[in-house]
Fold:
Amino acid sequence: MDEVRSNNNVVYRCTYHVVWCPKYRRPVITGEIDTRLKQIIREVCAERDAPLAELDTTPDHVHLLVTCDPQFGIHRLVKLIKGRSSRLLRAEFPTLRSRLPTLWTNSYFVATVGDATPEAVKRYVENQRNA
Structure:
């Protein structure tokens, strides 16, 4: 995870901690929805060559620890993940359409890993379930 990556123009090591919630912070990320959401997130990250170090969910929020090409931008990656997961999950699980006008809030939290080691952030994300 802590590896240096490159594209045609940039050599980078950009790891981000990203968190977002369902609309109204409804506890809908459970069971089959949770399983399918994780599959969609992994697919989008693989398509964009954005390695996932950690992916964890609780019923009311999603945590990612992901590396992203700075020229593509973390904002575009999050938009892709939230857009595709909302569209697919609402199509596959009609209960989400009846409970929520949209699946996700418009906002999200993002921070660079910075001085914290990816392992420390990974432990933090893993421990959120126990908090």
Remarks:
- The domain at 5-130 is CATH 3.30.70.1290 (Alpha-Beta Plaits).
